[in-house]
Specification:
The chain is mostly helical and 98 residues long. 71% of the residues lie in helices and 0% in strands. It starts with 13 loop residues before the first helix and ends with a helix.
Length: 98
């Protein structure tokens, strides 16, 4: 996959800026959580852009995981429904035989 650098302007609230500062500060809970979620170890001197990219990566991974979990749940529900249909057909066939 080729990395294409595209710069986007992202408006930040004062709360966003405060969280960004904590994300950039080694030893903070936010810094450690970002590393755990995104699997990215930010340098002590990581720029705001690098930190925002790591945060975007963490968010993308979290959304992808949620989509996969929803898909797995739907698949499991469909399989349960199919199994119930098969049991009902077997029961009907047994009643007709006997």
């Amino acid at each position: 996959m080729t990395k294409v650098k595209v710069r986007k302007s992202v408006p930040l609230t004062s709360e966003d800026q405060a969280v960004l500062d904590r994300l950039r500060t080694p030893g903070t809970a936010e810094h450690e959580a970002l590393r755990d979620v995104a699997g990215i170890l930010l340098d002590d001197d990581a720029s705001e852009a690098e930190t925002l990219h790591a945060l975007l990566t963490a968010g993308r991974l979290a959304v992808t995981e949620r989509v996969m979990l929803s898909g797995y749940a739907a698949l499991a529900a469909a399989q349960d429904e199919d199994a119930a249909d098969r049991r009902a057909m077997r029961a009907r066939a047994a009643r007709l035989k006997g």
